[in-house]
UniProtKB/TrEMBL annotation:
This is Class I SAM-dependent methyltransferase. It comes from Anaerocolumna chitinilytica. It comes from the Bacteria. Gene3D superfamilies: Vaccinia Virus protein VP39.
């Protein structure tokens, strides 16, 4: 496991935490893609135990609480995010069990305990996808559900330039790359969709749904060429995020 990347990313997430509150949280799965309200991937959450991997500010956990979940658990690499989540959930009269830990290590979460484990825009931060998926499988009960969303791998490869979309990176290369996020250095790895799906299979999951869609409103609007990362122009040509729903066998 690359400890140095985790240390750098933790420092950056601690610095960014305040500016991120609630930005990527259920019922949203990501940018310009259908929401959970439209997709209905989650089971009925009443009396269900849920775990959020990369829980950030706790907004997704509150959404689960509002839907009737009986226990709210979360983990996050950033101690600042955990503090923010704890306060936010407390302000909303929810009690949650929150762990400050990288998702790549076992941090004392109970085994075969959760009905639903989910992760909204956090799984892609892992420095070890295989171990992370094995950890998630160990936390879930048999037949438990794992749902996560992340940037579509094409986001790293395609750039809007010169009135068109061009490949700036190979889809096949799975290498660490570094950039500044809100002015803070972070390092992340782009992975192919097949890497996510094959790693899920190896960890004992059955993939029930892969969502590669742009939301209907964007598909129906005109979206002229525009530079930028998350733009309607791109979203009309390919999904900006993907979502996977898998079940532990
Ligand atoms: C985009 S935010 C997720 C927001 C969150 N889903 C919500 O509902 O508010 C990504 C989160 O992943 C966390 N993170 C990054 N690397 C991580 C790792 N290796 N292990 C656990 N959490 C990580 C960050 O600290 C950050 O809070």
């Amino acid at each position: 496991m690359n400890e140095n990347i985790l240390i750098q990313n933790k420092q950056s997430w601690d610095t960014m935490a305040d500016s991120w509150s609630g930005s990527t949280a259920l019922p949203e799965y990501g940018c310009l893609i259908p929401t959970e309200e439209e997709l209905g991937l989650f089971p009925d959450l009443s009396e269900k135990k849920v775990l959020d991997i990369g829980c950030g500010s706790g907004h997704s956990l509150k959404w689960c609480g509002d839907k009737g979940a009986s226990e709210l658990w979360g983990l996050d690499l950033s101690s600042k995010q955990i503090d923010i989540a704890r306060q936010f959930l407390c302000d909303n009269n929810y009690e949650a069990k929150l762990f400050n830990s990288p998702m790549e290590v076992s941090c004392g979460l109970p085994a075969e305990y959760f009905d639903v484990v989910y992760s909204i825009y956090a799984i892609g931060w892992t420095v070890d996808l295989e171990t992370t998926f094995h950890n998630v499988a160990s936390y879930l009960k048999k037949d438990g559900v794992f749902i996560f969303s992340w940037d579509h791998p094409l986001m790293h490869c395609l750039e809007a330039n010169d009135n068109s979309l061009m490949f700036k990176e190979s889809y096949l290369m799975e290498e660490d790359f570094s950039y500044a996020q809100r002015g803070n250095p972070v390092t992340i790895k782009n992975r192919k969709l097949s890497t996510y799906i094959n790693s899920l299979a190896e960890a004992g999951f059955l993939v029930e749904r892969l969502v590669e869609e742009t939301d209907r409103q964007v598909m129906e609007m005109s979206a002229p060429f525009q530079e930028g990362y998350y733009t309607p122009y791109k979203a009309k040509n390919f999904p900006l995020s993907f979502i996977i729903k898998a079940r532990k066998l």
